[in-house]
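Before surveying the methods themselves, let us examine one representative protein, pairing a chain with its fold in token form.
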Amino acid sequence: MGGQFAEWLYQKLESLQKKPATILYNSAVREDLQTLEPTGDIPNRQKKYVIQKLSLCSVIVICGVVMSIIMWIKDQTEIAIVDNQIVRSEYGDGEKAVTLIAEDMEHRYQIPLTISERCYSQDELMQMSDEASVILERSILGENQSFDEIQYDLNLVSKVAGYPFSVEWRTDEMYLDDTGRLVQDKLSSPILTELTAILSCESFETEYNMTVRIHSKAIQPGLEECLTRQLSDLEAQSREQYHITLPSEMADRTIRWHYKRRWNGLILLSVTPILAVLIFYGKDKDLHRQVMEREEQMRMDYPEIVSSLALLIGAGMTVPNAWNKIAKDYRKRRDGGAKKRFAYEEMLLTIYEMENGVVQAKAYERFGRRCRIPSYNKLATMLSQNIRKGAANLPQLLKEEAAEAFEERKHAARKTGEKAGTKLLVPMMLLLGITMVIIMVPALTSYL
């Protein structure tokens, strides 16, 4: 499906009066394709390459649009509030934060609301508090044997293990602070004082009274603030219920509620074409990277090729026979499962050209041009001149060229090692930092 659409799109782009040459006839892409595979119909291969890219980008765009629509429908479903009721999380599931949208006939209000988990009922909390108080009495004694003889600091805990209560303490601060520490070292006689634990869980707690006088605000709140306050009150009052019923009217206005819309679908839809464009041009970069890898491989193989030619020609072989032996030995290795080597592939192509009637000197020159590397051009020039003018010292020239090529390969390997060492510098610095932390933290801890 994607391939058919890509072919149709390619035909449409090609039929335009002002064709997008950058997409359809990119010269850099054509050159890279010809470099990787010198034989064959280059325009047709470039067309297939562009259609393949368009097919991949089309699939990405279609998937992005479909996912955007699905997410849009899902968001549309999730924002609906049925019967003005919001489901509360069960106890232990944690609170959830939502953003509600209130709409009347004139305005639209955005109300953030945090919905706590469902809490225990008062009867449940009362029963658990009786059990917790027994455990609490045993846990706060610390080193003391009983409450009748307190000689050591008490352990006034803030939690009771296995129960949902927070514990606060009310003490006589003259003798005992709220952490259980004895304030006075010596007393003339034992003192009786009250120690009160306040067990609290959400709205459940012991009585605590404070008298305050409240006045009206100088600036009266608007409808949004009133909605926020009312929702907070509703949330607090309905902690034992499974739902929160939102108000449908306020200040003689009808309120419609829904969740704040999430624009995930539109975000994905906007990102999809950008991703498709990046992948489209990223494929070209990947193609050029293959060309660079080809050149690097050919540079690495050059010393061996020149050395083999020098050895065979020095042993009495003619240039074409030495060339054929090197290339055909490679073909046997490749047919046996060896990795493809581009330089040897170019040598095989040169043999096929000579078998089809191309003059030897011309075939060697075309070999050098196809390789697109100065060293191979130099080798091709040496061989073609030997064919045309004759060169008695060709084996010696090839030996010197091989020695120079091996030196260049050593230099290239040294530079590659230096680059690898530079890349490893950051991980090494991170490891050094981690090692320093491992060494220093225990030392500082023991010192402090």
Observations:
- Residues 418 and 424 are 10 Å apart (CA to CA).
- The first strand starts at residue 85 and ends at 87.
- Confidence is low (pLDDT under 50) at residues 206-219.
